[in-house]
Please model this.
Amino acid sequence: MLSPKLIASPQKLSELANAYGTPLYVYDSTLLRERCNKLKKAFDGLPVSWLYAIKANDNPHVLKIVREQGFGFDTVSFEEVLLSLKVGQQPGQIFYTENNMTDEEMLAAVQAGVILNIGSFSRLEQFAKLPQTEECSIRVNPQIGDGHHAKVDTGNRDSKFGIRLDLIPEAVKMASDHGVKITGIHIHIGSGIQRPQNLTQAMKVLLDIGRELPDLKRINFGGGFPIPYREDEIPFSIEEFAEAAKPILLEELERRNGDLVYHFEPGRWIVAPTGLLLTRVNTVKDQGRITFLGTDTGFNHLLRPALYESYHAVVNVTRAEEESTDEYSIAGNICETGDILGEDRKLPKTESGDILALCDAGAYGMTMASNYNRRSLPSEVLIDDDGSVRLIRERESAEAIVSRFLKDSFYSDNS
Ligand code: LLP
Model:
């Protein structure tokens, strides 16, 4: 049986692995466009202006496709702001949610003309004191959190994010005393939301706060829509969520005579299923109780299993037609015991040289990759609508990465 999680035929994926080498991230632009359009369609007829959280996957070619679907960008660092501008995003379509922003970053963002979303009282004060500032959005901590792991639950009252609920009136007054209007409010309750009711509940909390704000133009409910990583998981339905959210959105819209824009800013839901990581098995090792498949990638390229114990489906694309008879753990090549990409996976009898696909890796794969163990990052390719393939990032050779590292460390033979 072929895995529904593969974005191209096993044969095509094997060909790509051979042509471009492994490890290799492969993205599917057709699916990417489809997913953007599915979101838009689910909220058709409502003034929802979609943003894409670029931290999920910021390859410029991916950004371009998403921008072309009419999406603005949610950014969380000045570097992301700059990248967004460089790929042609309009400043007014860039929402910059700060997190311990420095004064320099704040100034630069103000000068760039992006929408600032400020998540702490003290930062708001700094912002309000700047001479050129007139308005901004604020991030609220709604005291309702969710997420696929405690590390990505951002809305609970003990999380570092958002302005405390009871401080909001004071924050708005302080801003107003400095001549700054609060024109936007925002929540992001967490990533990979497990109970969508938590989001609709938090949306109501945010709307209640909004009622006290006379200058409000935009309300941003954040991202966090989950995707099914496991083969047997019931997928979150964006259509069902939209049905639950619509009455809430419509009621507020009526109260304000339609004078309001809503935002959602998902990352994972858009890109996760549109990408996978291909890796080649080079070692098959029976340790007695566990048989490991040793691969040429690791948590330096896909951190999620090591960091959150996340599950990514694994498919042996070399033997996609064969029955899964053996059990393996998929080991990375990083020198740490915790570098395991998948545990106890049923796969066809696998041999050195086989290509494995780590599925649903289009979000928080490459963006969280590092050069740990001084290894290079994977290459990335994009499959276009007509099936043609474009190299959109090339892995560095060992020689190149070490030379760059020495140069960046100001090291020379006579150092
Ligand atoms: N908006 C804000 C302010 C965020 O901080 C995030 C994600 C998003 C939107 C998009 O969330 P999404 O729709 O992708 O769930 N590295 C973790 C996920 C961390 C998400 C951080 N913030 C992972 O691999 O699961």
